[in-house]
Specification:
The structure holds 2 protein chains of 2 kinds.
Chain A lengths: L4 E4 L2 E2 L2 E2 L1 H14 L5 E7 L3 H13 L3 E5 L8 H15 L3 E5 L2 H13 L5 E4 L1 E4 L2 E6 L4 E7 L5 E5 L35 E7 L13 E5 L9 H11 L2 E4 L1 H5 L20 E5 L5 H4 L7 E5 L7 H4 L2 E3 L3 H11 L6
Parallel strand pairs in A: 1-4, 1-6, 4-5, 6-11, 7-11, 13-14, 13-15, 15-16, 16-17
Antiparallel strand pairs in A: 2-3, 8-9, 9-10
Helix pairs in contact in A: 3-4, 5-9
Chain B lengths: L4 H15 L7 E6 L2 H12 L3 E6 L8 H15 L3 E5 L10 H9 L3 E10 L5 E8 L2 E8 L2 E5 L11 H7 L4 E4 L12 E7 L8 E3 L2 H10 L5
Parallel strand pairs in B: 1-2, 2-8, 3-7, 4-7
Antiparallel strand pairs in B: 4-5, 5-6
Helix pairs in contact in B: 2-5, 3-4
Classes of the chains: A alpha/beta, B alpha/beta.
């Protein structure tokens, strides 16, 4: 059977999300140049979806579009059913998605409906059916092979598949496929209702894509003290993250959590401030190019993984850093 | 065998729902070899009413899809209104089982729950979930599947009297054959290796030295 991939393309604010572009890169890497890769974009309709479709088709010729009021929100039930229908229509050998909270929610449900085991949170591809994924909070890597019949369903860790804009979205000249899937959803769909999303508005770069990330832990002692980190982040044009302890203590909201069960980051520079370095936190930062740790406890485990460690009181170090660090913002 | 931390949180939530008068019974399920009995006893000691042990010869063949199919079969005989799971196991870090069983059952799902509120009429559940963008709130009609995230609650310790009481609670054993589920697997783990180690780093003595290294050695500025 010839290979072909469907990539679930999440979009927001009128463009395809970075994680999904990474998923396209992974699909193209696995399948090779001669196999078609189709992007699936869906929503309830409107200008943002149209803009996202434009963004997708400008760089990639095969785009499948689904419009339905049921797809206006990221609810797993209609989206999983959409994937089932897309699969029935397109008979893809592979389905890819980013391992975002949306991908984690939807993909396994869709896989079960299609009767296959997905391989999730992949960091490396070996061949079309063999992938590497982290286990034990990234302390071990498992090489897993899919040997079923049915689509090979894979979610990828975006930080492991850098999205090179333009390059990643280049198709091989396949004709444009624009289909509108009909509403044929079974009963189960109407049983969930989206109420709302509480999120913080920020101008800072997204954690998953930022070149520099500055992260705070319990050592910051209060929500107000995170302002010290924010000053440093602003000067460097960095994103701000946090350890689980800081989120549990209520210093910062959950979407800043970095770690095994939070966000995975792989920036050029990761600065951990007042973070002890629990294994679960390290799981989220291992692929950073350079790790810096600032902690007054010389024995903190974070110093085992840091490229540069500064055993100093962060309340002294931070103001000095803010004053002396080169400004990235123009 | 100690209980997966996320599952402990799920058990705790079930107990709180029962204590709030929104459920009449809490049943804990574990699947695998004999070591599951200890895990189930922990759940019973926390306060669950009874246990179910799906006994399999070989735990390594229990990939999430197999667990989901077994749960689906159990649900059809037990008829619970709420299926609570931990969001992921801390060994394989899959984060799939809850979503899969919800799909197989045709039930709505709420994953990564940080707050669970059953409605007064017990017909629906309102769940706050931790997602990439913040906290999302959704409402599901029961029966439903909910998977627990870290901040949903802090599980209780089993008290000694409850540990003693747990010894008298029943644990029913059932096999996949009895549930009419064939455990196959479409996945194979070829090998498990250590990830590449990071080179050891150095300690710096001052902010000036740090900035110098970052600029001239690491060249990130």
């Amino acid at each position: 059977q010839a290979s072909s991939a469907l990539v679930v393309a999440e979009h927001g604010g009128g463009s395809v999300k970075n994680g999904s572009i990474s998923a396209v890169a992974a699909a193209a890497a696995v399948l090779g140049d001669s196999s078609p890769v189709t992007l699936l974009l869906a929503g309830s309709g409107g200008s943002e979806l149209d803009a996202a479709i434009q963004h997708a088709s400008s760089a990639h010729p095969a785009v499948l579009v689904a419009r339905s009021p049921l797809l206006g929100q990221p609810l797993a039930e209609p989206w999983a059913e959409l994937l089932v229908q897309a699969q029935k229509k397109g008979n893809y050998s592979h389905i890819f998605a980013a391992s975002s909270s949306f991908g984690k929610d939807v993909l396994p449900r869709a896989a079960a409906l299609l009767g296959v085991s997905p391989i999730t949170d992949v960091t490396r591809t070996i061949d079309q059916h063999t992938y590497i994924r982290p286990i034990y909070a990234g302390n071990a890597m498992a090489t897993v092979r899919f040997k079923g019949s049915g689509p090979c369903i894979v979610s990828i860790r975006a930080t492991s598949f850098p999205a090179v804009p333009g390059l990643a979205l280049t198709g091989v000249g396949h004709p444009s496929i624009r289909g509108n899937l009909r509403d044929g959803f079974p009963e189960a769909i109407g049983k969930s209702k989206w109420i709302g999303l509480a999120s913080q508005q920020t101008e800072r770069p997204e954690l998953g894509a930022a070149k520099i990330v500055i992260s705070g832990g319990r050592g910051l002692k209060s929500a107000e003290n995170f302002e010290l980190l924010e000053k440093l982040a602003d000067k460097l044009g960095a994103a701000v993250g946090a350890s689980r302890a800081a989120v549990d203590a209520g210093f910062v909201p959950n979407d800043m959590q970095i770690g095994q069960t939070g966000k995975i980051v792989a920036p050029e520079l990761y600065i951990a401030v007042g973070i002890s370095g629990a294994i679960q936190h390290l799981a989220g930062i291992k692929d950073s190019k350079v790790i810096v740790a600032i902690n007054k406890d010389r024995d903190a485990p974070i110093f085992q993984v840091a490229d540069y460690g500064l055993a100093m009181d962060l309340f002294e170090a931070l103001p000095e850093l803010v004053a002396k660090v080169p400004s990235k913002r123009l | 065998m100690s209980m997966n931390p996320f599952c402990e949180i799920a058990v705790e939530e079930a107990l709180r729902i029962k204590e709030a008068g929104r459920a009449s019974e809490v049943v804990v399920v574990s699947m695998g070899g004999e070591q599951c009995v200890e895990t189930i006893r922990t759940g019973l000691a926390m306060g669950a009413d009874r246990g179910l042990h799906v006994i399999t010869q070989d735990s390594s063949s229990l990939f999430p899809l197999a667990v989901a199919k077994l749960l689906q079969a159990l649900v059809s005989s037990e008829q619970p209104r709420l299926l609570l799971l931990g969001k992921q196991a801390i060994d394989d870090d899959c984060n799939q089982t809850g979503q899969m069983v919800a799909g197989l059952l045709g039930w709505p799902q709420a994953t990564f729950a940080s707050k669970v509120s059953i409605s007064d009429d017990k017909e629906s559940v309102c769940v706050e979930r931790e997602v990439d963008g913040g906290i999302e709130t959704i409402q599901l009609q029961l029966p439903a599947v909910v998977t627990a995230d870290l901040r949903l609650n802090t599980p209780r310790y089993a008290t000694l009297p409850n540990i003693m009481k747990a010894k008298k609670k029943s644990i029913q054993r059932v096999t996949p054959e009895e549930l009419n589920v064939v455990i196959g697997s479409d996945l194979e783990v070829l090998e498990v290796t250590e990830p590449p180690k990071r080179k050891a780093g150095v300690m710096v003595a001052s902010v000036d030295e740090l900035l110098d290294k970052l600029k001239n050695e690491a060249r990130v500025f």
